[in-house]
Amino acid sequence: MAAINFSRLNSRIIRAIKYPILLLLYQFGIRQKKIFAIGFNKCGTTSLHSLFQSLGLSSYHGTKWRTNPEPSFFLLYDCFSDGRPSGELAKLAKLDELFPGSKFILQVRELNNWVYSRLEHIERQKQENPNKARSQYWDETEEAVKLWIKNRNNYHSFVLSYFSERPSDLLIVNYIRDELAAEKICHFLGYDCELKKPKKNVAPKKNRSLKHRNLLINSIESLGIHESETEYDILCPSLIDKDSKDSLPLDTSELKNS
Question: How far apart are CA 144 and CA 138, in angstroms?
């Protein structure tokens, strides 16, 4: 008969009791609220993670939180970043339900620079590991880029709509472009301090490759988007229905906190 590992068994029992209690405490507002950076990757998420840490917060930067983690995973950290929530448990409404009163940051970036950054990231990955299998969504193809652009517009529109009645719970910020981004985030989170904006994993400005420029141009032409719209960091007006064009911001420069 195999020996029973009482230490491991006790640990499992403690977790089984502890985490439901902690979830209840969060839902009644007794414990510290969470901070979710819910924008796409390649929008300064590594720097955001560093900023959270400089405020003394426990921060997780990675993909696990935004797919289908165990509920207990969210209890290990105060802040979460690196891409938009997509899993059933990590969906925006579910996070809002589990951790009421939490703060949400939609980090954004100009469409053209965002697309180029993603393409360059994929190109580096291919050079480092050329035999690795990739999804059609994450590749240097026109179909992938068009899907990114459409998903970005749809998701940003959804977030704006979701928080339309609760503007104090959402901060939209272009962390890379806005020199006051760190100050705005600190104020939004209730910190009365001045921090130098961390700049992590920031590649130096360079000329974009002809291959990537053509990919973007061909993609926006196929979607009916004018090239000038690629400078906006929130929405492409060509992909918005007529009734919403006057009510939705296209760029963070249009926001009151800009």
Answer: 6
Q: Are 85 and 92 a contacting pair, CB within 8 Å?
A: yes
36 by DSSP, 3-state: which? strand
Within 10 angstroms of residue 198's Cβ, the number of other Cβ atoms is 19
Q: What tokens appear for 88 in the block?
A: 């059933």
CB count within 10 Å of CB 61 equals 21
Tokens 């008969």 found at: 1
Spatial distance between the Cα atoms of 254 and 237, rounded to a whole number of angstroms: 14
Q: Are strands 59-61 and 79-81 parallel, antiparallel or unpaired?
A: parallel
Q: pTM for the full model? A: 0.85
134-176 pLDDT per residue, tens:
888 999 999 999 999 999 999 999 999 999 999 999 999 999 9
**Cα Rg of the chain, angstroms:** 20
Architecture in CATH for domain 7-254: 3-Layer(aba) Sandwich (3.40)
Backbone phi, psi, residue 169, to 5°: -95, -5
